[in-house]
């Protein structure tokens, strides 16, 4: 199998850590045994030839010139369902993903300066945010996500965009090589509440940053009035089975300071609405609408506070 990540290492010269990460990603992809992998690879192999291009400075990044048969291309891309992050336009086909990720990016973008930076995006999904980071001036974006389908979607995007300095590795952040690579900025968006030990995750992000580097943390928090509280769901939260801890904003700041961060600031707190996360033809499963109490939209179906998300900026 042709190495997928052979173009990564030259983008970070003299970084043994980056070379090791690329090799680890190629090995994982070559040995993966996911049952749907042959079907996904067949979809990638059937993508039409296209003039590559990338228009990234927009809410819906446009990758590749419009193909002659967009209906056929849509059918191919549907083999990579569900599309969680977007929106995207590939070869002229608009992908209306479950998340309006552009809404989240608008909340984050005013508080980050990425010009010339090397960026790590933890839990990156299909790499949508990596495209927005490149448009904001990032030199290199290395995304990690162990969900193989998202890597396949990134490869589909790459078919249309050509080689960009944004990558999605089929690894969890815990599977990255040891050492301190020295990223300028680390993004952890929608990850912390899925960790059994959130403090350990924050410590890990700090070890991946250079001195004076920046963490951009986006996570679930409790609503106003519960800033010092901590919710630890005993069962599901908003129908999700793996939500371990939802802190109030003040408790979250305490976690960050204990993990060694300074200049810690909550820059945005926004309740998640059904216009931002919803079922679409590109993600046909249940979404936020089915996770909220139909009689009280401030509560989940489990009777817990409905999802509220905060963006926190922290310095190493």
Structure description:
The chain has a domain of 216 residues: Vaccinia Virus protein VP39 (Rossmann fold), CATH 3.40.50. Helix 2 packs parallel to helix 6. It has a seven-stranded mixed β-sheet with strand order 9-8-7-10-11-17-14, with helices on both faces. With 316 residues, it is an alpha/beta fold. Helices cover 28% and strands 24% of the residues.
Task: Give me the secondary-structure topology.
Elements: H1 16-31, H2 37-45, E1 54-55, E2 62-63, H3 70-78, E3 85-86, E4 88-90, E5 93-95, E6 99-100, H4 101-108, E7 118-122, H5 128-135, E8 140-144, H6 148-161, E9 166-169, E10 183-189, H7 198-208, E11 209-221, E12 230-231, E13 246-247, H8 249-258, E14 262-271, H9 288-291, E15 292-293, E16 296-300, E17 308-315
Parallel strand pairs: 2-4, 3-6, 7-8, 7-10, 8-9, 10-11
Antiparallel strand pairs: 1-2, 4-5, 11-17, 12-13, 14-17, 15-16
